[in-house]
């Protein structure tokens, strides 16, 4: 029989444990809302401003989020880190203000409304542009309210009751005013060049709106017959390689590399099912010839090199388009020049580059240099124009992906026709990094469209202390006027601005600030009177935007209202109010520039730029501008040390509010 197990003594009652009123669990999800409510009730942010007094300011330039959905972990990381920076600088002795804001314009908001339309089977192009814009405004305003509360819940301290919004009437007026400064200083122009284009969204995209993903593309090796040049090369073929077969109908030249060694190669044998034929002779770069011929299923024993081909011989050649004779109207019955190009390499391909000036940046530069014709075969939805022989209406991309595949019928149609006319020697598929829209995730194309640009290398007038052009002033600011931490940040931005092409301002969208300019009917973009430049017109536009918002640009009678007596409104075409005219091409012949053209959002969403004209920062821009003068005029700004001294003394004694008091202008002047 076992002995009873002794009981374990309960020592708890013998311990002198500390006691506290704090709960054993923090219960943060329940307690934090109470803290936030208390911070709002006692006005923590305003009290911080009061306590900062005359401290030096610390300003965080906060790029705004889009008002188009709930916050995600990226928003949290962004705002919490910035909140830590602002709070730490407040503790370090600065007046660290934080004014939150939202980018309310642009594709992300418009895309959400279009998604709602598609779900209802509604045609967005049948909706009045003002009604559509009002839907976008209501959508953005709703998400501003939702995101504001979500940001507060993250514990971010800021001026949440008075944020900056790019869709505020005043902000829209300021954005339009900045655009009109480009108009007045001569840097604004309308040009036609290839841009990143989304056929799905029917708009140009900036580089910042582009994502790169793996994409499976067709590859084709195409023969261009030699029709003029050295006698022994007539009838032979220059072979090009491309991953965009749909651009072949737009080909207008073939480029070669002046420093590349080329040879003439003859086919001596072929396997079954090969498009090459015994006796064919191809011009190829020596470094790439074996790979090219292998793509055509030719073993090394099936071809031989005949001779060198010099750069001088290449430049003397003229080629025929591979589709010559294929169309009854002679669409491709023209000569194709051989041109030198520094962009041609031996990294891949054949050593010859098919050149379509309307569909690539290098192609465009070659086209400008050698005055090649531009083509307009591809419409805004990515389809070929209706009167293009053989390929009319064929789309490069589907409207919606099929099992993840966006490819339309255009590539297949072009390849089939090239096979039919005997112009292919090989075809294949390649997976490579390719640009996609950040919003729709659809692949992009390079497409030549009339767009509005700012010339970054044109003299822009005004104070030229830091340079005569936009590029020079930007580079001076980056290189000399800004302290960078870490210093490597300077190099990246400097090199980007140093190589940046002219700035594309226009977007083919309805929701945003319109391009507030008038173009003369019948005039060409190169004509001196193409654009109406009138300070009084600009002032009327700005005042109307400030009072009514940018919707007034689309209202009936807007053209006559803004032009006034500055010119005959009839000379400037008809006012466009409907979204049916969606593309810039259709808008070129009308004025003002309406429909779905707007300024791109980068110019809108700079918080320092917009808010410098609002009282949210607390410190006004203490300068006086001459009534009627232009920003480029020497006397536009009043520069007077006595005036500045009076302002400084008043601010020290009374604070910045004295700037807004009645009679302040006369007092300081």
Please provide a written account of the structure:
Helix content is 31%, strand content 19%. With 669 residues, the protein is α+β, with helices and mostly antiparallel strands. The protein has 4 domains: 49-167, Rossmann fold; 175-207 and 448-603, no CATH class; 211-443, Valyl/Leucyl/Isoleucyl-tRNA synthetase, editing domain (Isoleucyl-tRNA Synthetase, domain 2), CATH 3.90.740.10; 616-668, no CATH class. The strands form 6 sheets. Strands 7, 8, 9, 10, 11, 12, 13, 14, 15 and 18 form a 10-stranded mixed β-sheet that branches. Strands 6-5-19-20 form a 4-stranded antiparallel β-sheet. It is globular and about 100 Å long. Mean pLDDT is 82; it is low at 573-618.
